[in-house]
Amino acid sequence: ALGKRLAFGLLQRLGSDYTRLIFGLHLLGFFLAFLLPSGIIRIFILIPVGLKLIEVMRLPRDSRLGAAIIASLICGTNYPSAGILTASLPNLVILGIMETELQQTISWGAWLLFMLPTIGILRLLVSTVVILFLFRPTGSTSLPPLTFPALPPMTTAEKRVIAYLSLAILLWATDFLHQIHPTYVGLGIVLLYFLPVFGVFSFEKLRGLNFPLLFYIAAFFAMGRALQESGFNTIIATRVLQIVDMSRAGWFGSYYLLILLTLPFSALMDTAAVAGVLTPLVLDIAQKAGLSPLGAALAEAIGTSLIFLPYQAAPFMIAYGFGHIRMHQLVRAMVTISLLTLLLLAPLTLGYWHWLGLI
Predict the structure, then answer these.
(1) Which of 92, 106, 218, 295 lies 20 to 30 angstroms, CA to CA, from 83?
(2) CB of 3 within 8 A of CB of 49?
(3) Which residues contact 258 (CB under 8 A, 6 or more apart)?
(4) For the segment 211-228, what is each residue's pLDDT rounded down to a tens digit?
(5) Could you give the dihedral angle defined by the CA atoms of residues 53, 57, 61 and 63, in that order, rounded to the nearest 10 degrees?
(6) Measured CA angle at 180 (ends 189, 353), to 5 deg
């Protein structure tokens, strides 16, 4: 109910204009990325809202506007999420391996500084423009008036959820002051949800926890550690440096090559798995080439966010399964957004990092 309350509240303020609707749906997805770390959970909240919107507008199943609504929610919550440390699973895998291998970390606020302006905000705008262009309805772009079902007053549980999520964002944003790791902040907030008096859920809810996902994440760290201990990363890193002379590539070429390095891996496996396998290798290459390990890790994070096809990331496949958007429509939007990121936003981001002194 809280998800619907937030969504309907935003959409009722957008009016009946196509451009404002698509931009508002992107904003909704992006806003949830700050609150909910799991892209899959965000999809399960957002897509039903989109389906309700399609129902309210009485759109046929093959409507271009209906496809635009679904595409806006999918792309708006997944592509810009790479700009937020806790909003993307590959980000957290990269952070964990970097801390294990180099005993070096990056704060939530620092990640926001380096990634949010371009990979977060500008990418949100790029996605909005792409969806507006690719799915523009034929004829008038005026929409029928939107009327949503009345919702009951906000419950105490909903107010607590908002308060605890706001506290989490505040603690994440100020971790450079209190030095509490983002992971511990997240665990602390989860604990608050289950407290007997001040919590929101009963311990019975723990039975529904997705434990296989936890093992799935742990497997990424194990894979990366195994590759590092076996010497595989050193061999491959040496081979890559023999093929590509990074001393001649300059600062821009070196980090751009690290972004490109993720693409063949992403074609073969889920992006979170790519982060687990590739991060030790990227860090090894960075050390041998005299590059900033942090800059290399962030470059890899950009690479893992270049999702061209739905099978590369579970949230896209789950969202597609709800219908109202055809595979060729979704693929065309994904390829366009990822190509624009690779050709425009990635170079702009590297220039921004150079200006900040990161690389």
Answers:
(1) 218
(2) yes
(3) 282, 285, 286, 291, 296, 299, 300, 303
(4) 665 676 566 556 656 765
(5) -110
(6) 110
The per-residue DSSP string of 38-104 comes to: -HHHHHHHHHHHHHHHHHHTT--TT-HHHHHHHHHHHHHHHSGGGGSGGG-HHHHHHHHHHHHHHS-
Q: At what angle do helices 89-102 and 271-289 cross, to 10 degrees?
A: 40
Is residue 276 over pLDDT 70?
A: yes
Angstrom distance (rounded) from CA 286 to CA 97: 14
Task: Give CA–CA dist 244/203, Å, rounded.
Answer: 54
Which residue did the predictor score with more confidence, 319 or 152? 319
Can you give the residue ranges of every domain in the chain? 2-142+155-356
What mean pLDDT, rounded, does the chain reach?
A: 84
The dihedral region occupied by 195, where left means phi > 0, alpha psi between -120 and 50, and beta the remainder, is beta
List of residues 6+ apart from 69 with CB closer than 8 A: 21, 22, 25, 50, 53, 54, 324
